[in-house]
Amino acid sequence: MEPLKTEQVTKVADDDANQQAGGHQLNAYIFQNDYCSVPSHPIIIAASKAMQHERRWQAGNGFKHYSERLQNGTAEIAIGFSGNNVEDIMHDLAKMDDLSIDVFILAITQWLYSAGSANESVLIEVDRILKYRGIQPKRKNGYSAGYREDERLKVVDAFELLDKMYVTARNLKVYQKGKKPREVTLESKVLAITDRIVEDGETKAFKVVPGGYGEMLYGFDRRQTAMLCRKIVEYDYYRNSWEKRIGFYLTFQWAIRRSHGTMNQSFRIATILEKNNIKR
């Protein structure tokens, strides 16, 4: 499968762009009754793990990357950063945090809910991410005065970081409803920014699309989805990192176990802590 080729474009908002960011048909709200269906594809899970396991990134060809083998060792997924400057890559690696995972999962899910095709980018407002995460806007004279600038900038930085990440998958067996399993090898971006909507020097929204693996997610088999509780993304990524990580882990594990018919299998506390990079 050829990865999608997306050209990165920066748009400075004028009247038309303002209309696109503000008057554009807003994408569907993904949470219903505090739950939403999120993709549990192996690439999604591997990318999420990579963002919380900085110490498991290994050096290879002069650069660091995260990798794991799956499907009985026959397949490999690797996550890395684009670029040729080692210092820049190490700087980006140090910026990864649990907010990056929130933004990644929410953006991919919003894309699945809103895209009309596998290569269509969708508009995601920075404020929409903050709303999903339960962040309260400022209040002035009893009225909402918008979100704090520092909260918006953290989300913008997370989007920009995701745009630098790439995934390499080798011999990955994929399943789609009504089709025979097939092995896929690809290299693509984790999340590509195609447009930036900027107003008065402030980034208000992004148009994004996953890389080539998006073709595997679009029209995906419902066996590769998980039900995510909104409370998990509402947890503070700094103060409640344990709760957030364990919440995501169990969300994906229940989806995997459902597909394998092992829902009654017990969890070991030591395994949960180890898998989520939590030190006792």
Percent helix, as a range, is 25-40%
User: What sort of overall outline do the alpha carbons produce when their principal axes are compared?
Assistant: globular
Give the averaged pLDDT, no decimals.
84
Helix/sheet category: alpha+beta
Span of the ends, CA to CA: 43 Å
Give the helices and strands as they follow along the chain: EHEHEEEHHEHEEHEEEEHEHHH
Order of strands, widest sheet: 3-4-5-9-10
Sheet with the most strands, sense and barrel status:
5 strands, antiparallel
- Give the amount of beta strand, in percent: 25-35%
* Number of H- or I-type helical stretches: 10
Q: Compute the number of strand runs.
A: 13
What low-confidence regions span 5 or more consecutive residues with pLDDT below 50? 1-25
Rg for CA atoms: 19 Å
SSE topology:
Blueprint: E1 11-12, H1 15-23, E2 35-39, H2 42-52, E3 58-60, E4 63-70, E5 75-81, H3 86-95, H4 98-114, E6 122-125, H5 126-132, E7 139-140, E8 143-144, H6 149-163, E9 165-174, E10 182-189, E11 192-199, E12 202-209, H7 214-217, E13 225-229, H8 230-234, H9 241-260, H10 269-275
Parallel strand pairs: 1-11
Antiparallel strand pairs: 2-13, 3-4, 4-5, 5-9, 6-12, 7-8, 9-10, 11-12
